Amino acid sequence: MGWPYLLTPLIPIAVVLELVGSPATVVFAASALGIIPTAALMGRATEELAARSGPGIGGLLNVTFGNAPELIIALFALNQGLQEVVKASIVGSIIGNMLLVLGAAMLAGGIGREKQTFSSTSASIQTTMLMLAGAALIMPAIFELVEGKGLPAPGAESIHYGGTVEHLSLAVAVVLIATYVIGLFFSLKTHRDLFNPEYEEEDTWGWSTRKSVIALAVAGVLVGVMSEVLVGSITEASESVGLSEFFIGVIVVAIVGNAAEHWVAVLVAMKDKMDLAVNIAIGSSAQIALFVAPVLVLASFFIGPHPLALVFNGFELGAILLAILVGNHVTSDGESTWFEGVQLLAVYFVFGLAFYFA
Fold first, then answer.
1. How far is CA 321 from CA 101, 251, 315, in A?
2. Buried (b) or exposed (e) across 202-217, using 16+ Cβ within 10 A?
3. Nearest to 106 by CA among 347, 340, 343
């Protein structure tokens, strides 16, 4: 069934550790690893439903549930008032998909091959959407830098910026969600062939619709339980191991929430299906920027201590811009080699080092 499911016993273990008051570091590690099989089950159930629903509904299901674990984790963190952790996880997911996932896929798929090819048109459309989303995401930070208190420090936990930039963030969120909906119409209706390679429906397990829905519901509940345990231990665990909440949000939480999806991208790249690998990596980044981040802004007006303002710190702004530019350049020619994968991974590790020392 795949390596993620070997971690399934950590789900009840994490709950028990939380109930008996174990050290926060142990609880955090167990719950972080416990999220991986629940995310894998959610992804599998979604793929099985998509295979039975046809390309239109199937594509909608994939993009809707593709980043559900990250969204659920962020909602729990938002409710706990860990707004800077939420923003860090948004940035971490964007750069993780653009650099870590795409880089690992190009490296694994390129070994033993001179080069791999994929649709430059599809990649260009998605990177352009991501660039537009990136431009929108940084504007509240620029506004706050010029008109307000300045950018937050990497070690900040929650900052209340006030009405103006919060309302600007809300307006930006509405524009991004509208763009996302129009993009769905474009990719699932008018230009469906660009985003649906012929081999995309392989490797299903033949689940019935009922079984897939039940698995999706169970996975959703388990992701919620693991997310609550994970978020509840972040603050104390970060102090125990000497890592900032910023680093945990931008690196650890982002990788954990996307682990199953990351693995799928690498596997399909090794099978020389780079169109699908590139769509997973860049498409997931675009969905985080265009859908997950705006939804969290809207949700923050109803949960948490105060609305979430899209004011990222300097490290986050630099990482977003550079990751999008590098990803756009690497995918522009529709070809990839293993060395390009190494270069993307190198950029990600440099970002990780900077975040560690921040």
1. 17, 17, 10
2. eeeeebeeeebeebbe
3. 340
- One pLDDT digit (tens) per residue for the chain, 358 residues: 567 788 889 899 999 998 998 888 999 999 988 888 887 887 778 777 777 765 556 556 665 676 787 888 888 888 888 888 889 989 999 999 999 999 999 999 999 888 999 888 888 888 888 999 999 989 999 988 888 777 887 776 667 777 788 899 999 999 999 998 888 888 777 776 666 555 444 556 677 888 888 888 888 888 888 888 888 888 888 888 888 888 888 888 888 877 766 777 888 888 888 888 888 888 888 889 999 999 999 999 998 888 888 999 899 999 999 999 999 999 988 899 999 999 999 999 999 999 988 7
Q: Which residue has the tokens 């008996």?
A: 20
Report whether 327 contacts 127 (CB < 8 A). Answer: yes
User: What gap in Å lies between CA 218 and CA 213, rounded to an integer?
Assistant: 9
> What amino acid occupies position 20?
V
> What are the tokens at 164?
């103006």
* Beta-sheet strands, E only, within the chain: 116-117, 335-336
